[in-house]
């Protein structure tokens, strides 16, 4: 790091040859090599050749928090007190502020297996009271595990000494072909509804049905089939029966390679984003990441929930433990 802090990278492998690399800067997944239907491996998560790339381009494969997505007006009221947060997207806060969890060097500890190739890596960080405007000392933990069932599992945990909003997510940019755009990827979302948003992508507070709109992926459809009607996807979907247990939120299939990715989560929502802002970003191995060159499936509570009492609550109180899980599965077929 610029201040000479050392950043560590860990390698996870499974019995099927999948390799995942994750570093403690932002709990960032830097590489995820997955086979196709014929056993040919490709890196399905976008990234960079060195740390500098991640310092210049935020959110690439990282954990975001304390609160993922947007908080309208960069403020909220809780228990009769109003908290002003750092605004980093116009007048709103995005992904935890100017220095969110994605820009932190976390403490890291290999768990299980051999030290060189652990079964999991446990990352921890103490977010101090007042950081980015949030109340409470928040003890945050993320455990990253690669299983022999071809599952990349992220288990989140947090405790606080003051009431505070908490909403972690993983912000990986995926491309199951490894290169090119993702417009031919076939997407299915287990979501009959979504949260409409204003021009600044802050939810209005309403929940609307996807039926009859370009947001309807209740049946498999290519991502690019209606993307011109949306100018690119960046929307929170309400997962059917989400927020109760580990539930299938999304399934994506890349037709040429046959690679399949599923997103499972204990949270009620998933943000589907199609890298609308990419404009030739210099990437790994000399690649140039272009618009629609990746997709994100950010499992989460709904954006701006702290200001929308009708949405599932994101408030964590002393004595409680925040526990959520996200699992990205890569089934053979």
Summarize it.
With 333 residues, the protein is an all-beta fold. It has one helix and 28 strands.
Global shape? globular
Largest sheet: 9 strands, antiparallel
Intertermini distance: 41 Å
CATH class: Mainly Beta
Spatially, the strands of the biggest sheet line up as 10-11-12-13-28-22-21-16-19
Determine Rg (CA atoms, Å). 19 Å
Order of helices and strands: EEEEHEEEEEEEEEEEEEEEEEEEEEEEE
Beta percentage is 35-45%
Uncertain ranges: none
Structural class determined from secondary elements:
mainly beta
What is CATH's topology name?
Beta-galactosidase, Chain A, domain 5
Counted beta strands: 28
Number of domains: 1
Arithmetic mean pLDDT: 96
Q: Key terms for this structure?
A:
single chain; 333 residues; mainly beta; Beta-galactosidase, Chain A, domain 5; 9-stranded antiparallel beta sheet; 5-stranded antiparallel beta sheet
Describe the structure.
With 333 residues, the chain is mainly beta. It has one domain (9-329): Beta-galactosidase, Chain A, domain 5 (Distorted Sandwich), CATH 2.70.98.10. The chain is 2% helix and 40% strand. The protein has one helix and 28 strands. The chain has one helix at residues 51-56, and strands spanning 9-13, 19-23, 28-35, 41-43, 62-64, 70-71, 75-78, 81-84, 93-94, 107-113, 118-127, 138-146, 151-160, 164-165, 169-171, 186-189, 193-194, 208-209, 221-222, 234-238, 247-253, 260-265, 269-273, 279-282, 288-290, 296-300, 315-316, 322-329. The strands form eight sheets. It has a nine-stranded antiparallel beta sheet, with no helix packed on it. Strands 18-17-20-23-26 form a five-stranded antiparallel beta sheet, with no helix packed on it. The N and C termini lie far apart (41 Å). The mean pLDDT is 96.
């Amino acid at each position: 790091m610029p201040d000479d802090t050392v950043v560590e990278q860990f390698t996870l492998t499974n019995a099927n040859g999948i390799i995942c690399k994750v570093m403690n800067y932002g709990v960032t997944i830097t590489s995820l090599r997955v086979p196709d239907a014929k056993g040919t491996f490709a890196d399905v998560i976008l990234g960079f050749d060195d740390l500098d790339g991640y310092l210049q381009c935020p959110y690439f494969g990282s954990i975001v928090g304390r609160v993922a997505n947007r908080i309208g007006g960069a403020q909220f009221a809780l228990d009769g007190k109003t908290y002003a947060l750092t605004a980093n997207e116009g007048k709103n806060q995005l992904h935890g502020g100017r220095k969110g969890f994605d820009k932190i060097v976390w403490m890291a500890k290999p768990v299980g297996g051999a030290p060189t190739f652990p079964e999991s890596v446990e990352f921890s960080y103490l977010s101090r009271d007042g950081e980015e405007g949030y109340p409470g000392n928040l003890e945050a933990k993320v455990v990253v595990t690669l299983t022999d069932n071809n599952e990349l599992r992220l288990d989140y945990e947090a405790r606080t000494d003051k009431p505070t909003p908490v909403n972690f997510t993983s912000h990986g940019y995926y491309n199951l072909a490894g290169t090119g755009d993702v417009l031919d990827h076939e997407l299915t979302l287990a979501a009959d509804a979504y949260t409409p948003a204003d021009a600044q992508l802050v939810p209005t507070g309403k929940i609307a049905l996807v039926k009859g709109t370009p947001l309807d992926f209740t049946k498999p459809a290519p991502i690019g089939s209606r993307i011109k009607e949306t100018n690119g996807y960046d929307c929170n979907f309400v997962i059917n029966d989400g927020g109760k247990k580990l539930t299938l939120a999304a399934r994506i299939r890349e037709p040429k390679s046959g690679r399949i990715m599923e997103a499972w989560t204990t949270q009620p929502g998933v943000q589907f984003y199609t890298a609308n802002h990419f404009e030739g970003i210099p990437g790994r191995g000399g690649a140039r990441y272009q618009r629609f060159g990746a997709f994100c499936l950010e499992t989460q509570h709904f954006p701006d929930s702290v200001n929308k009492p009708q949405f599932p609550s994101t408030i964590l109180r002393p004595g409680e433990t925040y526990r959520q899980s996200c699992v990205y599965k890569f089934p053979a077929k």
